[in-house]
Design a protein that fits this description.
Structural class: alpha/beta
Number of strands: 14
Radius of gyration: 18 Å
Bound molecules: zinc ion
Number of helices: 9
Shape: globular
Strand order of the largest sheet: 1-2-3-4-5-6
Helix content: 25-40%
Order of helices and strands: EEEHEHHEEEEEEEEHEHHEHHH
Largest sheet: 6 strands, mixed
CATH class: Alpha Beta
């Protein structure tokens, strides 16, 4: 039995808990307290930590968890976070709890950003992508270029369409608000907005989302679509463009939205 549960942290973060046979892997523990509370309540033992990138809201809980579980592996990219004891890079495999995660380098939000792809999960493939792809949106470009982020999202787009996307924030409603300004006539997007609104009214998480739905409704995965291109070009007053220009203008538009 495998279960993947969100642990709410800060105002809108999700720390993911992957549990199997009483043991758990935690993805991006930005805060230790809610993680400890969750694993104690569920009767789990912590067996490993996966880190996607160096931002405080993804790494600040590691040291407190290591005080309780000093011998566990902490996997993560080669960055300034000294608590990571197993450095991984693109195409590496990480095996914890008998589950093998493939590491995908996805620079853009930060330069060190990686994602973990779990291909053989009993419930279908799963991707833990931190602040790279969000439900209905993507991460801000704090360190990388639009071209890097577009390439990174391209790697995610190439995964099987039934991949469940586990991102690290509950941003879906505001992302879809923006997406509707870009593509007001997209019926799938309209339906998704209504569904998301009703879930948030009940305080139900809107993630994970399926990659297939992201491909149909997330404008940051649709910058090759001519309708999206026309709309972004008109907004940014581009006379001629390539897909990177469209992506850069779309990201800038969202930043100011
Ligand atoms: Zn971040």
């Amino acid at each position: 039995m495998l279960s993947i549960s969100p642990i709410s942290a800060f105002s809108d973060n999700y720390i993911w808990c992957v549990a199997r046979n009483g043991e758990a892997i935690i993805v991006d523990p930005g805060d230790a307290a809610p993680v400890i509370k969750h694993i104690e309540k569920m009767g789990l033992t912590l067996s490993g930590i996966l880190i996607t990138h160096h931002h405080y809201d993804h790494v600040n809980g590691i040291d407190s968890l290591l005080e309780l579980y000093p011998d566990i592996p902490v996997y993560g990219p080669d960055n300034q976070c000294s608590s990571i004891n197993h450095r991984v890079r693109h195409n590496d495999s990480v095996t914890v709890l008998g589950l093998t995660f493939q590491v995908i380098a996805v620079p853009g939000h930060t330069l060190d950003h990686i994602a973990y792809y779990l291909k053989n999960s009993p419930s279908g493939p799963a991707l833990f992508c931190g602040d790279t792809l969000f439900a209905g949106g993507c991460g801000r470009l704090f360190e990388g270029t639009p071209e890097q982020m577009l390439n990174s999202l391209g790697l995610i787009q190439a995964l099987p369409t039934n991949t469940a996307v586990y991102c690290a924030h509950e941003y879906t409603l505001s992302n879809l608000n923006f997406a509707l300004v870009v593509e007001p006539e997209n019926h799938k997007l309209q339906d998704r907005f209504v569904e998301t609104q009703s879930r948030r009214e009940k305080n139900v998480p809107t993630v994970p989302s399926e990659l297939a739905l992201e491909l149909l409704t997330n404008p940051f995965l649709r910058t090759g679509n001519s309708v999206v291109q026309q709309r972004v070009a008109a907004h940014a007053d581009l006379k001629s463009w390539n897909q990177i220009d469209i992506f850069a203008s779309l990201r800038a538009w969202k930043d100011g939205f």
